[in-house]
């Protein structure tokens, strides 16, 4: 049997899972987003967060932004990931409001425009957040994550593998992105849980936190 770790097998699985979510209709996407937000509101890691990161969906990713008014009402500070200019392929997080000026990054994804000095002051490294809502391409019943293949979240969260205090990491996805088992690489940072439009799966505590 070919190994799940084989780069070609991983690429094929990513392609297959991305296709699945890209064919969802606008109506299915909307319904999934609303159902996801109901699941997220019940999670203690989301309820207790004072600083939380979301993302703006691309390529059929499930949309976590219906949560924005709920966070606003609760005075929770919401952040979006931004590509770090001088640090290869890693992220920091910039405060996001209705009037935040946005700009497309090199992947065509909108992010807060950090050319404005005011926004530079509002940016944080991942360790300063309570909870991160993390997009993913695939997940399994142990809350293992397969991303887009760039390792951006793994790099930005590598400090977690050294132990010590860490933000909660909540992966989010369409239920159709679940597979039986994913290959886990040494650099993959374990999630706390994955929430989909149908259910929440939690990582085994002993494995997820050293
Ligand atoms: N902490 C890290 N430091 C350096 N490179 C990393 C780190 N984490 C991941 N990478 C690199 O990023 C690449 C993509 O990682 P992978 O886990 O396959 O992608 P994704 O998490 O997006 O699915 C890998 O080739 C890996 O070597
Ligand atoms: Mg990874």
From TrEMBL:
Positions with a binding annotation for substrate: 56, 61
GO MF terms, alphabetically ordered: 5-formyltetrahydrofolate cyclo-ligase activity; ATP binding; metal ion binding
Reaction catalyzed: (6S)-5-formyl-5,6,7,8-tetrahydrofolate + ATP = (6R)-5,10-methenyltetrahydrofolate + ADP + phosphate
Keywords: ATP-binding, Ligase, Magnesium, Metal-binding, Nucleotide-binding
GO biological process, any: folic acid-containing compound biosynthetic process
Keyword ATP-binding: yes
Binding site for ATP: 10-14, 145-153
Keyword Metal-binding among record annotations: yes
Cofactor requirements of the protein: Mg(2+)
EC number, UniProt record: 6.3.3.2
Top class in the EC scheme: ligase
Gene3D superfamilies, per the entry: NagB/RpiA/CoA transferase-like (3.40.50.10420)
Family: Belongs to the 5-formyltetrahydrofolate cyclo-ligase family.
Protein name: 5-formyltetrahydrofolate cyclo-ligase
């Amino acid at each position: 049997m070919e190994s799940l770790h084989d780069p070609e097998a991983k690429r094929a699985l990513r392609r297959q899972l991305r296709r699945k979510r890209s064919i969802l209709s606008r109506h299915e996407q909307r319904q999934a987003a609303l159902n996801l937000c109901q699941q997220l509101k019940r999670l203690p890691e989301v309820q207790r967060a004072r600083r939380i990161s979301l993302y703006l969906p691309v390529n059929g990713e499930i949309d976590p932004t219906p949560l924005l008014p709920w966070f606003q009402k609760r005075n929770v500070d919401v952040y979006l990931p931004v590509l770090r200019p001088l640090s290869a392929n890693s992220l920091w997080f910039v405060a996001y409001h209705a009037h935040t000026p946005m700009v497309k990054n090199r992947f065509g994804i909108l992010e807060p425009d950090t050319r404005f000095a005011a926004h530079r002051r509002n940016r944080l490294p991942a360790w300063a957040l309570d909870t991160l809502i993390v997009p993913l391409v695939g997940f399994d019943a142990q809350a293992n994550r397969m991303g887009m293949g760039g390792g951006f979240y793994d790099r930005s969260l590598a400090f977690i593998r050294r132990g010590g205090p860490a933000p909660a990491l909540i992966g989010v996805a369409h239920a159709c992105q679940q597979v039986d088992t994913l290959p886990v690489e040494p650099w993959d940072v374990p999630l706390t849980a994955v929430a989909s439009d149908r259910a929440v799966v939690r990582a085994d505590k002993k494995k997820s936190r050293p």
